[in-house]
User: Fold these one by one.
Assistant:
Number 1:
Amino acid sequence: MYTFTFERPTSVADAQRAAQAGNVKVLAGGQTLLASMKLRLANPEQLVDLGGIPELAGIRREGNNIVIGAMTRHADVAASADVKSAIPALAELVGTIGDRQVRAMGTIGGSVANNDPAADYPAAVLGLNATVQTTQRKIAADDFFQGLFTTALNEGELVTAVSFPIPKRAAYQKFRQPASRFALVGVLVAQTDSGVRVAVTGGGSGVFRHQGLEQALGKSFTQASAAAVKIDAGALSGDLHGSAEYRANLISVLTQRAVAQMGG
């Protein structure tokens, strides 16, 4: 292990000040960061642990929104009665993340800030049209995710919470990569006040909305309507786990399954 300093602030203000000082990495759940440090892919001079800030954790309902603090663990979201009753698809999605150990340590803030191209939470944030709240502003989901491990966050800007509007109904279907349990492809379909949203994770360089599926399902919310949409494999990624064509087929199949789950 190489030398670094470790700081555990007790307030958001202190955490933001520490996060803006030089070669710093912010530690949320640590499920990606610590592994990266072990492999020398990350070499921070200082770690700023957010685990000592009570106000960053917790789940609450604000009007027609479920607000989840950035340091809330996956296991707590999956088990939350408020989430299960208001957005059951979100609780189900979070319950598929990794394994029990990952869910006991991983956090929503760490997941969305990391923006792994095969992570589950970004599909929920984008598909449910959530708002990411930070130490500086509020960022709409459509503006937040910007590609492979890239977000709209500025240097030193910290996620404090994510606010999910309660949809009319939603469903998440995921085809797991057997070893990692990341999504080889995951699809979240939501019927919201502004229309149908379809978010895909695991298919490309980052989470994205599929406009063709959204338009088709907006006209006719049926499995047949989803099945009729041609999924272009040219924009998708391929690797040893599955070709781009295979992922294209998965997007179609999982969307149809989500629609069926929602009664369409």
Number 2:
Amino acid sequence: MNTARSRALATQEESIQNNIAQIEEAKARPTAIQAMAQRLNLSPAKLQETLRATVFKGANDSEFAALIVVANEYKLNPLTKEIYAFAAKGGGIVPLVSIDGWVRIMNEHPQFDGIEFEDIVDEKGKLYAIESIIWRKDRSRPIKVTEYLDECKRNTDPWNKSPNRMLRHRALIQGARYAFGFSGIYADDEVEIQIIGDPVEARNVTPPTRAQMIDQDTGEIIDTVTDDNPNAAEGRAEADHGDQHDDSEEPHAAIVAELIERAAGAGTIIDLKAVEKDWQKHMEALPDGENSRIDAAVSERREHLESK
């Protein structure tokens, strides 16, 4: 006899079986690192070891997991530097995507139907903006985005050597964002990550005095009174009163030596970008000749790393 109790027991048993099936399905589903390892034809253990030692170096467990999820979401290959980790200003790690990665995810989008670039020049024929024009198969009109050189250009080696190409990359990336809604990833020239984290206080670019010391870990000038640098305030006061010392260039030499040594020992492009970032903090206070020496060391190391 089909009583209410028997029907309730049958419903409960069906619910239990469904829950068991869902649990078993979840257990059989590969983890994010397993999914990436399968996609790249590597063992999960070897892939994790490699990523932690190279492009995802410095990421904690949570950040590492987030980077893997983002890479899988966009089917990017971190081993070919399509995506890598970068330290944000306020702390933490953000996923940076190279131009090759952006081109890949745009080309693999099912609605992508082509892209064109329009150079915009002034009355003297000098390029000052580039417009990207992207077509989607499901839209009747293209998406157009204009990027301006004076807003995008940064004082880095790639921008100084190839500003037109870098601006074209910028127009492509911003156009792809508008056209396809890509989110959670950032361009690899660091522009976007400037807004991440806490605001950065303005730095004092007054040339350092002999009383100021160099932080050996970061390469920054220590200009506050600490146990390691008790004379910092005194040195700054002397500078304010015009009591300059003949040996005031010694900290310059220490900064330059530190940055050149770090550039030469950089094991990845990420490490080299960190050197460039610290260099920019001191650039205005260093003589042109010293900046040239640092630039040469960074360029030489970059060519070496990119040739691997």
Number 3:
Amino acid sequence: MDPVAIVLGIAAGVSLFTWVASLVTGDHSWVDRIWSIVPIVYVAVFWAATGFTDARLTIMTVLVALWGARLTFNFARKGGYSGVEDYRWPILRARMSAGQFQVFNLLFIVIFQNALLLLIALPALVAFENQTVPVGALDLGLAALFLVLLIGEFVADQQQWTFHQAKKAAIDAGREPEQRFVATGLWRFSRHPNFFFEQAQWWVFYAMGAAALGSAVHWTIVGPLLLTALFIGSTVFTESITASKYPEYAEYQRRTSMLIPWIPREPRGAAADAPAA
């Protein structure tokens, strides 16, 4: 069968499943639970269509599998597969009528996000359509960059996990945590380094498809563009919740880059308090 038809069929089936499951269970995080899995399946379908022989698609499939394994591990240890719903959905439900939220669930949570998971995997289609183009230094360099970004995301997530475990231990012991949100390590240079590395990996994946085509711009760029737009919108919403809980978060926002890691600004008043030369 045509791999495009297979991938579209899988996407339709997954979308139907996540929608029905959300209606039956009242839990709207089903897309989150398949987020790290279905892109691997989509890319692997194109790889399988080559008889598992195309070098570029072999590299792309391995990289996406590593991405998925890391994300699945991190999601699972946070209890993502235990039936815990994304904390943002109850907040949105409280701001909407029941009918409005169900429309939001169908159009955004189910259809848009499942379509996005398909779109970010479609550079594999470009590689499938250009199998005669040999793997070169650019492909290998992009693969190495993907791995560096993957390691960066692992480090960021581990730092966040370690912080929250220590915070939980302090609260359980009846102590007030010294810091109420993570702002050290990579989080000193970006308020969301894990989000930055996540998006950057899919931009590199897009570049690998574009390299097979020999063009810097290709229609599959819509995938990483929409992913970046989703992350920015999600980040703004998430930060509004955090800022409402922790007044000191505003100073962290002022001092630290939102996504792209960058040198933090000085604390407010630090320059005035510095001794004269």
Number 4:
Amino acid sequence: MSQSGQLTDTSPRIAGFGEDQFARILLFVAPALFCTNLLVAKATADLIPPVHLSFLRWGATFLLLLPLVGPRLWVRRGAMLREWKDLSILGALGMGVCGAFVYIGADTTSATNIGLIYSASPVLIILLAAAFYGEAVSKLQIAGITLSLLGVIVIVCRADLDVLINLAFTVGDLWILAAMIGWAVYSVLLRHRPSEMGLSTRFGATTLAGVIILAPFTLWEASTGNVPVWNWETAGWIALLALVASFGAYQVYAYVQRVLGAGRSSLLMYLVPIYNAVLAWALLGETPQPYHWIGAALVLPGMMLATAKGKKKSA
């Protein structure tokens, strides 16, 4: 690994494969790593309280990051103090809303729904970037946005118009929608807010901020009697989240992005809901329903259109 904490040319590779080929393989591995979070959210709904799960996940992730970014966090402590507002907002959104809200929603909705609803986040990112930072949106992207939003509505309403008319949404679906909106805002701010820190250092600082913000809410949750069942199973789930869904997924994505570029590496986002539905069926026994396939048939092509690079506005 490099000092930035990302995999480098010296990283081990599969015999007979060059760096580009190895990155292409990892392009299909990364979505499975990201899906781990969505599956664990469902699997631990009755074992670990949601805020505790988010706090423990990101606390463990920070400990894993500390040997890599700790020295640079100390060197950049001045920048951290100057950027404390941005770091607090990013930490609250990325580790709090996008963490605890998903785990709360997992108690009353399926892992398949979580993945498919979350798959529309790139569409919202485009809308927010256009509205607040003037990024151009093409007619093709508008068509994609329409398809994706229609797909999300189909999933949330379970293809039942009466649900939409009567606003009889599943509570879990609404929590996931809120988490998806939080992720979109987080992504836009991360992209457009300037920072004196490098990517991995800023990620470490944001993780620390998120853990600090989650701490009082974790204590509050414990005061209500909601505490984890402490055993080896609990420790295993937390370790899985920290190693795979946080640390591992980030490192693999960083490597793929460095080798293949941002454009090709973004293709993995299209695979996340598909992987998630398959894994939820294989591991959790969730049988896909017709409305899942209808929603996916709208969301996925809509995402591909919506994330197509539009023409830049003329100055």
